[in-house]
Write a structure and sequence with these properties.
The complex is a heterodimer of chains A (about 260) and B (about 250).
Chain A: E1 2-6, H1 11-22, E2 28-31, H2 42-47, E3 55-58, E4 61-64, H3 66-76, H4 87-121, H5 126-134, H6 139-149, H7 154-174, H8 188-197, H9 200-203, H10 214-225, H11 227-233
Parallel strand pairs in A: 1-2
Antiparallel strand pairs in A: 1-3, 3-4
Helix pairs in contact in A: 1-3, 1-8, 1-11, 4-7, 4-8
Chain B: E1 3-8, H1 13-25, E2 30-34, H2 44-47, E3 57-60, E4 63-65, H3 68-78, H4 89-122, H5 128-136, H6 141-151, H7 157-180, H8 191-199, H9 203-206, H10 217-228, H11 230-238
Parallel strand pairs in B: 1-2
Antiparallel strand pairs in B: 1-3, 3-4
Helix pairs in contact in B: 1-3, 1-8, 1-11, 4-6, 4-7, 4-8, 7-10
The chains are: A alpha+beta (about 260), B alpha+beta (about 250).
Chain lengths: ~260, ~250
């Protein structure tokens, strides 16, 4: 029996939920409301001391970090392999994983949070939220949320946009000779990048559009049409999982 | 079948992890050392291999492989020899998680502290204009910012303090893991041990207040076990210190 603790099917949660759907694995879903800071409640911290989602529970063990949960699922369950068969394709997958985890995820989320934070925080008294944040027992996360409540640093946002632009350029170039990001088939690499890129049409239409990045636009469309992707993205509570965002992960602290 | 490795001396961190992985796996390779203090990794010859100007790179049968962690898993998958990843998926997950924590959280914290100590001496007697020219040639903007921050000694004190805090708390998590099992990922030696040795073990010399026989006995015993491995001895024998002065 698989259990998944997750928030809306976007970003890291989308990666694991799409992976599960592609592999046609059933799981018991546990919704964790990130904006209500439920991930820092003692019962969740017991599953993951860093208070993160998604968390996959399998045979009594709690696993974290989307990249490694997905590889774990693909290693344990051989239905519909989602990693390239050859070593070079797998190397490529892991390079994309790193790119997503270290550069793309923090940058896209930073832009998305700036776009959506006002409506998401509307109606919540700032003082009450600040108190809740001060009680987060994980130091890094307390800092992350405190920063997220401050006005955005324009320089930081500009850097995030540069990183997104660079990832886009790399992917557009890659798709000029290959249909998928790693190896010759659809893989976890496509799922990883898609799970963040799906934010971009609403955030950076000047960078991602038919004219500037036609191949990436077509690739996004192909992915969005997959039945497993559609099924995974419909498992949230809100109408559009990509019209909401939550702070994190942190930017790499040193080049 | 040729294997070439572009790397920095002395062997440690990203260069060391790939070098040691090749030795542990028993893969013969051609050494292509780049001289860091002469910025050979930013010159056209190497940028043709890796346009990001980052080290190490592995060339196998004419194809280039970059990014240390991805290279190490590639070596384990592409070559025969003793397995360097646990067989059980759960331990593999644990190995990958440790590799990331060691490289990204601890490694970057160490890098921040270390660069702020050595970069001003690293650039030697070069004029500010020369240094600026070198900085401009760093292809990755985030990396360029880190270089500049270390060179100008402008890294905020609270960032350096946060890195020290992460080192201490990381040392505790590692000690807890090594108290529960002989190796980082559990019952078998793996890439996580290779990473820990290359990114973290020298903290025992640098900061004996963090890693020592009293505070972290299991880690100290693990370092001794690691240093006895033939591949580690071989790496130590092939490691050469350049003219860079030791950190203060």
């Amino acid at each position: 029996m698989l259990e998944l603790y997750h928030w809306e099917p976007n970003a890291a949660c989308a990666r694991v939920m799409i992976c599960l759907a592609e592999k046609q694995l059933d799981y018991r879903s546990h919704y964790v409301d990130i904006l209500a800071l439920e991930q820092y409640r003692p019962e969740h911290l017991e599953r993951n001391a860093r208070g993160e989602v998604p968390v996959l529970v399998h045979e009594g063990r709690a696993l974290t970090e989307a990249s490694f949960i997905c590889e774990y699922l693909d290693e344990v369950f051989d239905s519909r392999p989602l990693r390239p068969a050859h070593a070079r394709g797998r190397w490529q997958l892991r390079v994309w994983q790193k790119e997503v985890d270290e550069a793309l995820a923090p940058s896209v989320i930073e832009l998305a949070w700036q776009r959506y934070r006002q409506p998401l925080l509307a109606g919540r008294p700032g003082e009450e939220l600040r108190q809740h944040i001060e009680q987060i027992p994980v130091r890094e996360k307390r800092d992350l949320w405190s920063r997220a409540l401050c006005a955005a640093d324009p320089e930081q946002l500009a850097r995030a946009r540069i990183r997104v632009g660079r990832a886009l350029a790399r992917i557009e170039a890659h798709l000029s000779s290959e249909p998928w990001l790693a190896g010759s088939d659809f893989s976890l690499a496509d799922i990883a990048v898609y799970s963040y890129f799906n934010y971009l049409p609403a955030l950076c239409a000047d960078l991602l559009n038919e004219h500037a990045t036609p191949r990436t636009v077509a690739w996004l469309r192909t992915l969005a049409a997959r039945s497993a992707v559609r099924a995974a993205l419909s498992r949230g509570r809100g109408e559009d999982p990509y019209a909401v965002a939550a702070p994190g992960p942190e930017q790499i602290r040193w080049g | 079948m040729t294997v070439e490795l572009y790397f920095f001396q002395p062997l440690g961190t990203n260069s060391g992890r790939v070098f040691l992985t090749l030795l542990e796996k028993g893969v013969a390779f051609v050494e292509r050392e780049l001289i860091g203090p002469e910025f050979e990794h930013l010159q056209p010859a190497y940028l043709a291999v890796n346009p990001r100007g980052q080290v190490p790179s592995l060339v196998h049968d004419g194809q280039v492989y970059t990014e240390g962690r991805a290279i190490c898993e590639y070596i384990d998958e592409a070559f025969s020899g003793p397995p360097l990843r646990p067989r059980a998926p759960l331990e593999r997950w644990s190995m990958r998680r440790w590799c990331r924590l060691i490289e990204t959280d601890l490694g970057r914290s160490l890098m921040m502290i270390h660069w702020n100590r050595i970069v001003p001496t690293f650039v030697g007697g070069r004029s500010p204009e020369e240094v600026e020219k070198i900085l401009e040639s760093v292809p990755d903007p985030d990396r360029r910012r880190a270089w500049r921050s270390a060179y100008l000694q402008q890294t905020p004190a609270h960032d350096l303090a946060e890195s020290q805090r992460r080192l201490r708390s990381g040392a505790q998590s590692i000690e807890t893991a090594l108290r529960a099992a002989p190796w980082m990922a559990g019952s078998s030696f793996s890439l996580a041990d290779i990473d820990l040795l290359n990114f973290f073990a020298f903290v025992a010399q640098w900061s004996p207040d963090i890693v020592n026989e009293v505070a972290t006995p299991c880690t100290v015993a693990w370092i001794q076990r690691m240093e006895e491995r033939p591949a580690v001895r071989e790496m130590r024998a092939r490691s050469r210190r350049r003219a860079t002065p030791p950190p203060r």
